[in-house]
């Protein structure tokens, strides 16, 4: 089956899982799995850009990942800086906007500065949005949004009756973006691990045993072809 270019998911989320197992199977340190995983980030961003995906959300570092050994956390931060330094020119050329899901205020300053530079330099781009989940948790995002709404109510900027899901969505990190159409999780785990809990209400899920460092463009195309077979009813019925 060929891909239907008229039915490409507008927003794809990926829980990039399996780097550690990929490395372990080869007798390598986990950090080399993350390094290989970073190469897939580069390829999959490019593939989504070519397909015309409007938003790609990648789960790079969760609010729970701080529990990992310091050396692994530090390597992940270095890879993020490497990715930005190495890819920023291409991202800018391709008119891609970088957006962060999560609170970056407590990241090490060199990472924060690098991310802030990428945010500033791409803020007016509009071909595709690359959301990077960094110190991100879906529950935290919903609590943060709720606090912001409460503050606007207290400040008289809105009132309780006006708060619909459409209004609430404006307080999420993905404000203004298309809904999450397709959530992909490689590595054989069948859970959402606190990723985009609000946004995935009507997402199609696609799971695969492939580990993230083996996740090629062809695997992405398989996921999209499968998505294209789904009947999305949003609680209604087929015509
Ligand atoms: C999960 O695999 C993966 C992560 C926690 C990190 C993902 C980060 C990258 C792919 C690289 C940096 C990101 C960007 C955007 C440049 P795991 O370590 O939990 O694997 P395991 O379940 O096999 O142990």
From TrEMBL:
GO MF annotation list: ditrans,polycis-polyprenyl diphosphate synthase [(2E,6E)-farnesyl diphosphate specific] activity; magnesium ion binding
Protein residues bound to substrate: 18-22, 30, 34, 62-64, 66, 68, 185, 191-193
Coiled coil (UniProt feature): none
Domain of life per record: Bacteria
Listed GO biological process terms: polyprenol biosynthetic process
EC number, UniProt record: 2.5.1.-
rRNA processing recorded as keyword: no
Keyword Oxidoreductase: no
SUPFAM superfamilies the UniProt entry points to: Undecaprenyl diphosphate synthase
Entry's cofactor comment: Binds 2 magnesium ions per subunit.
Protein keywords: Magnesium, Metal-binding, Transferase
Active site location: 17, 65 (proton acceptor)
Cofactor: Mg(2+)
Residues bound to Mg(2+): 17, 204
Family (UniProt): Belongs to the UPP synthase family.
Assembly with partners or alone: Homodimer.
Function: Catalyzes the condensation of isopentenyl diphosphate (IPP) with allylic pyrophosphates generating different type of terpenoids.
Protein name, entry field: Isoprenyl transferase
Organism: Peptoniphilus asaccharolyticus DSM 20463
